[in-house]
Amino acid sequence: MSGIAQTVLAAVVTAVFAAIGAHPYNEFLLWVKTPGVVGILALQTLAACSVAAFFCRNRGVGGAGRLRTVAAAASAALLLAVITGLVCTRLNLFTGAPSAVNWMLAALTPIVFTIGAVLAMRLRRKRPEVYAKLATTDVEAV
């Protein structure tokens, strides 16, 4: 079902861009892919923060020294945050779009993240058994 939804969404977005006469590369591809690039960078930053927090809380895990594991993860998080900031502040170099468009493209990541977090908290509160199964590797459990 999700594959069908993704296909329909892609077809609608493609049709809208074609209807307004958008350039296939300069406007369509770059504008559609830019939020994904920003989102991946943001997720990598959050993952590095999570690794640092994990090793801070779990001493002796991993075999390497705590300082080294935490320092590596914290350094990665800091550098990824800087890179994400640079990409967001210089989106015009990627898209060639006006600043208002670039601002909207960059704003999509925190908006989608917030919506996802709110939906996850709602699911955790209303259907905790389904929420608990999200972390399992058994796809059929969800």
Short descriptors:
single chain, 142 residues, flat
Give a nutshell description of this structure.
By secondary structure, this protein is an all-alpha fold. It is built from 6 helices and no strands. Helix 2 runs antiparallel to helix 3 (66-89) and helix 2 packs across helix 5.
Explain this structure.
This protein starts with a helix and ends in a 9-residue tail after the last helix. It is built from six helices and no strands. With 142 residues, it is an all-alpha fold. Helix content is 81%, strand content 0%. The protein has helices spanning 2-19, 24-57, 66-89, 91-95, 99-126, 128-133.
Low-pLDDT sequence parts = none
Radius of gyration based on Cα positions: 19 Å
Whole-number average pLDDT? 86
Order of helices and strands: HHHHHH
- Decide which structural class fits the backbone: mainly alpha
SS summary, helix count: 6
- Major pleated sheet: none
Shape: flat
Please state roughly what percent of the residues sit in beta strands, choosing from under 5%, 5-15%, 15-25%, 25-35%, 35-45% or over 45%: under 5%
- The count of DSSP E runs of length 2 or more, i.e. the number of strands, is 0
| Percentage of residues assigned to helices | over 70%
First-to-last CA distance: 14 Å
Write the layout of secondary structure elements.
Blueprint: H1 2-19, H2 24-57, H3 66-89, H4 91-95, H5 99-126, H6 128-133
